[in-house]
């Protein structure tokens, strides 16, 4: 069973980074190892800037989401827990709080794009680079 709760803050950041790394290594095949390391240094900086919700499965932190100003800035599920409804639970909770939720997703991550389309989002725009200006296109999504 998946349970959701607010993050307990900095004490959980190391586990959240482990979840992020597991998810990225399993799904972001377009990133070189150096890119993963670059982002791994940036992700912890973002945690205090977003409202983080964590998902636990049998007491184990399995995934998390981060929202700022009605925008889903991050949603990651540890690879060991993918396909078990953790991401869907996090997304439903985000939508309950912010029905007009928006998000950006890496265009080169077809599973993530498909996940959001399956949950009723539609592509409304595209950016050639990510928020760091790196050559990883983002699709802008909103609920249909």
From TrEMBL:
The keyword DNA repair does not apply. InterPro entries: Acyl_CoA_acyltransferase, GNAT_dom. Gene3D superfamilies: 3.40.630.30. Keywords: Acyltransferase, Transferase. The keyword Oxidoreductase does not apply. CDD domains: NAT_SF (cd04301). Pfam families: Acetyltransf_10. Residues 2-144 form the N-acetyltransferase domain. This is GNAT family N-acetyltransferase. It comes from Amycolatopsis rubida.
């Amino acid at each position: 069973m998946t349970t959701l709760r607010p993050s307990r803050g900095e004490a959980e950041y190391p586990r959240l980074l482990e979840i992020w790394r597991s998810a990225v290594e399993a799904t972001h095949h377009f990133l070189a190892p150096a890119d993963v390391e670059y982002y791994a240094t940036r992700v912890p900086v973002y945690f205090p800037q977003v409202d983080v919700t964590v998902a636990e499965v049998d007491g184990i932190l399995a995934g998390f989401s981060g929202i700022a100003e009605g925008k889903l800035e991050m949603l990651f599920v540890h690879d060991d827990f993918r396909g078990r409804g953790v991401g869907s639970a996090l997304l439903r909770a985000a939508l309950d709080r912010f029905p007009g939720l928006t998000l950006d997703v890496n265009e080169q991550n077809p599973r993530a794009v498909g996940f959001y389309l399956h949950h009723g989002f539609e592509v409304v725009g595209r950016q050639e680079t990510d928020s760091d200006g790196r050559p990883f296109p983002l699709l802008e999504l909103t609920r249909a």
